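Homework help board

Subject: predicted structure for assignment chain

Our instructor gave us this sequence and asked us to write out the predicted structure in token form, then describe one feature. I got the tokens but I'm not sure how to describe them. Can anyone check?
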Amino acid sequence: MFQMTIRQLLRTSLTLSPEIYGTARAHANVIRKNAAINELSHDAIQMALLLAPPIVYRGSDGAHYCAANLRSLHLAQRLPENTKIAVLVVPQDELAPLSVMSAQLELIGTLCAGLDERFLPGALRMLWEALPSSAARRELSEDFVSKTRFAEVTGTNRRDFSRRTKPFRSEFRAWMER
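My token output:
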């Protein structure tokens, strides 16, 4: 679909594309609700950026503008100014019309990354327990030192951590268990 190039750019050289402010405003509601990202360490942010690098294009003025993966651009702003991050560079003409393509990419990203909130506490508990030590948790955030603090940061009820989660059926789980 796209001709993409992976590049390393300084965090400060990325700007939100002015053509996608409507998409950015819609996406800001999702970003604001997840306060846990504000507690992540720089290493954890770099890990998140590896999973979903900002999708950028080079403008006619030579600047790099973020067109999609706005959550990643938001996270990158928390890194020191001299930090280089991986980005996917797409030719601007392949993103036309930019406002539509940006909205499509963000919607697909949100839908694919979404988790039914009924299962969120159980999933977080299972992921917490999958981390082998407090040091592994602390690498992600200094606030991930206890179940109580982790629950506060993620907005879940710590009592849900003591309940056993009954595995739920999903397409992904069915594929994984093949």
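Reply (TA_rk): Your tokens look well-formed. For the description, you could write something like this. The first strand starts at residue 5 and ends at 10. That's the kind of observation they're looking for.
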